[in-house]
Amino acid sequence: MAWDEWEQLKADALARRQDGMRLDSAADAAGGGGTGAAPDLKMNHAGNKAAVKALREEIRPDTDKAGSHADDSSSTAAQKFSSWATGSALKAAHAEWELQVKNLKGRLGGDQNALEKTHQDFRYTDIGVKSRIAQIDMGSIPGEEG
């Protein structure tokens, strides 16, 4: 079975379910709501790949650089003002900054991992469905004359 046939089967199944459950964002029969296009679950492989690449090569390294940019000057300022309340306040502010940068870097790493896993899960699901469809014996379809 060719991939085009799979797409046709999905379209036929969707047509049979038009009166069934639909998400609020899907277009209704009058054309209102949603994008107006037939709903379909699709993975934007190129967009996902670009997002992972941006996280890996730009966003995470740049966050690391920006997060540590003020380390030396903040430490120096806190030492210079150590006998004042400003010194301890600068030290506390810098510690909070470091914590927030660490949390952001962890979140970005988690987002990158989730995008990579989602991409992999969709690929394996698509391959599995295609494999199962290829195994269907089209020789004995009920109701068809042969």
Would you mind describing this structure in some detail?
The protein has 146 residues and is mainly α. It has four helices and no strands. Helix 2 runs antiparallel to helix 4. The longest helix has 50 residues, at 85-134. It is rod-shaped, with a radius of gyration of 27 Å.
Largest sheet, strands/sense/barrel: none
Proportion of helical residues? 55-70%
Q: Pick out the low-confidence regions.
A: none
Beta-strand percent range? under 5%
Mean pLDDT: 80
What gyration radius follows from the Cα positions, in whole Å?
A: 27 Å
Structural class: mainly alpha
What's the end-to-end separation, in Å? Answer: 18 Å
How many separate helices?
A: 4
Tell me the number of strands: 0
Order of helices and strands: HHHH
- What does the overall shape look like? rod-shaped
Sequence-ordered SSE layout with sheet pairings:
Blueprint: H1 3-16, H2 45-68, H3 71-80, H4 85-134
Helix pairs in contact: 2-4, 3-4
Entry keywords:
146 residues; mainly alpha; rod-shaped
